[in-house]
Please model this.
Amino acid sequence: MSKQVAILGCGMHPWGKWGRNFVEYGVEAANQALAEAGLEWKDVGLVVGGDTMRNGYPGYVAGSTFAHALGGTGVPVVSTYGACATGAQAINVARAYILGGLCEVALVLGADAAPKGFFAPQGGERAADPDWLRFRLLGATNPVYFGLYARRRMALYGATERDFAQVKVKNSRHGLSNPKARYRKATTVEEVLASAMVSDPLRLLMICATSDGGAALVLSSMEYARRRTTHPVTIAGVSTVTPRYPDNVLDMPAFSTDSAAVVPSAGAPFKDTIARHAYEEAGIGPEDVDVAEVYDLSSALELDWYEHIGLCRHGEAERLLREGVTTIGGRVPVNPSGGLSCFGEAVPAQAIAQVCELAWQLSGKAGERQVAGAKVGVTANQGLFGHGSSVVVQR
Amino acid sequence: MAKVRKPAVEGWFTYDGEPALIGTRCQECNTFFFPKETHSCRNPACQGTSFEEVQLSTSGKLWSYTNNCYAPPPPYVAEDPFRPYALAAVELDREKMVVLGQVAHGFSTADLAVGMPMRLVVETLFEDEQTEYLVWKWKPARAGS
Model:
């Protein structure tokens, strides 16, 4: 039995700091995706909204908020949240409805209006919330965790600050012509290394910003898609896996890892299992991947992802980068969109935007940043509190 | 008059004499938890629901480190003017667990290297007019007291 669903249309409101209501970004993205699909709003049988935690109650019930804004058709809704993995959760719910025969066409969308600066926890005195306590007791911002990973990469694998800068240089070139990207400016290794240190060894230009943005996908059953197009782009695998005990890599927002004193470590670290699950669903392996969109919250993290998604073994990411394998024109371009480096993060939209980019790449619509002949793409990211997120897109 | 010394979070560490982090140990499978798990064991192979409090190892190896060059947002109570400080993730030998903490006052990332031995200390996190609020920190072990 086919477990695939079709991507009929994609849409994105450009990323930026626009200062408007997040609902507007979502509605614009939805209308673009419907137009690309050649469908109308009334054709949608399910809306899955990715929640935002930074825009009050409408953000917690994003499915209904977007459906209401698009016009009251009585459509069923679902709202999902998985931090940075929210989009993958939303896609997975829509896929389950479609594969279960509960609807033919689903609209998946997420949008955010983000505050400037460091992400901070929700307000109040919340001593039982580790996300509040990590700020209170340690000042452990997100870049602190990114800095720990980067420093460990340097110690274990000989990564250098120039490597981290080179990732930024690559992504800034990739994103130059992307009309949806917020930052479209080429940069140099020297400029990156001259920017202010934030969390050693990571500098300002190595860390992604927070952004406003919105992304949407129109998904359908394969039968429905075949009535409209001969060769649709499909979603062939979705991963929303969680860590196995004992998880022995320190992850946001935790104070500690699990203890491996009694139960030995499960083997593969959590992040290695994320894309693996999506590959298994799709019946492919990392050697089949032509293009990837991964979560470069920091430019050093992009190198971690090369290994986690299986493009190379642990410790080999710097070699891939230095040889140009992950640059457009190389064997497996990574973040042809420009990545978070050029977008900044709009949390509930980001994992959906990754899939939009791959769908455009696989259907030859990526313009100057086109990866020639791409047939298989994979996305990867991870949400706070142990949310895996990976989608395999095929044509 | 001397200020009252008080932990910034209740019941996570001892601070008189030799300080130590307070965790729990599942009485069924013996695995460790920090912060304390007191309700049900998170080892999926274990149904344990009773836990004993244990003091964790006070030394370990530096897993990785970084710093904050800018003041973190509230609820962190930042010094004014802000001074950058380092943070360390330390792997405890016995518990095979990595615990994050700030690095002791007077030490920066220049004093740190992955793999070096570290030990636990307790220092002031922030203070108000009456009270010094305490937190655990990591200090290079060879630095003495």
